Amino acid sequence: MITGKSSEKPRRSLFRRINEWLHLWLGLASGIVVFVVCLTAALWVFRYEVWYFTEPYQRVEAQNQPFLPPSALMEKAAAFAQIKEGKPVEFTGITYGTSKKSAIVNYKPGEGKFYSIYVNPYDGKVLYHKTGPSPAEAFFIFVRSGHRFFFLPQKIGSPVVGASCIIFVITLITGLIWWYPKKWTKSMRDKSFKIKWNGNWKRVNLDLHNVLGFYAFLVAIALTISGIVYSFDWFDKGYQWLLTGKATASHGHSDHHPHSDTTITRALYSQPADILWQRIRNDHPGELGRLNISFPEEANDPYEIAINPEDGTIYRTFNRFFDRNTLKELPSEESRKFEEMSAGEKLYAMNFDIHVGQIYGLPTRILAFFASLIGASLPVTGFIVWWFRGKKTKTGKKRKLPESPISVT
């Protein structure tokens, strides 16, 4: 009869050993990329707010009067552009925002160039001539390059980031399995859900890895999976098929827009942009978040109007198309409103807003910001846990291997 307790720890199961091995080595392999992707994601979250407050020409004072029609705004913009360019210009589109935002008239001064003229939508006054990115915009273009491509050429960087994000999902899952307490005692609950700030630096680092990783798990998973969509077409199609039962390229945007009737070569209406603008305003009364009218360039191009009922998100945006000469509306799959979609189609349409944390405004942006910061911290704290495992302490004794790091990435 054995009366004493065995000093040997029970051997971990094969599943546990494989799980921990995957977590460790996959985390080490992808850590640097995940760190850059998550850190740049945290910066990217508030890009619109930074642009809005550092670019005063985007803002106007709301007035108790309607916006001027496109022709009136373009007349003011055309006179300004002709002075700047020394010749008449052809506009490619016009964008209206909310009552507190300026309107934007776009034109191409040459091949591969796109300029914008910001005007006050109430009186047509020219506010700014934009010929390139602002300093804040240039900064976020740099940030996006790190987030999407790890500062590499797109063809190389996009799959590198996408593969690292897939690994990140695996390490988050294996980390959660490793974190899961074997016993739900008070001591284990404290270790799993609380950071022991009065512990030594190794304990604090371990808790930052374990506890913050657990709390950020669901948000980090959502942000990561929704981002992989933009790295791999096969993932995009598979994800869309899983949600909607169908798959299209370019994240749901059809490559087959309706075309204008080329047998009609003469426009039947003068001021077509005004007519279409008024038609849209009649169909969608009240303040819109964004209304963009893209003008046809080729003979078979239609007028394309993007309508977003809200400001700050894009998932409710839908497009309407009109023949360039007859202004007859052309049917398109992209003309369906968000309310007309199935549950799976709605979730797929919300993918970008979920990914950047803007799905429910400021609260979810703040949530995405902190989840991204935690995601960036996990490779750092995880590497420290791994590097110091088994290292001798000042007393000459080896430190025990931590039992449950949540994620090396």
TrEMBL record:
Pfam families per record: PepSY_TM
Q: Does the keyword DNA-binding apply?
A: no
Q: Which InterPro entries does the annotation name? A: PepSY-ass_TM (IPR005625)
- What keywords does the record list, in alphabetical order? Membrane, Transmembrane, Transmembrane helix
Residues spanning the membrane = 21-46, 160-180, 212-232, 366-388
Q: What is this protein called?
A: Uncharacterized iron-regulated membrane protein
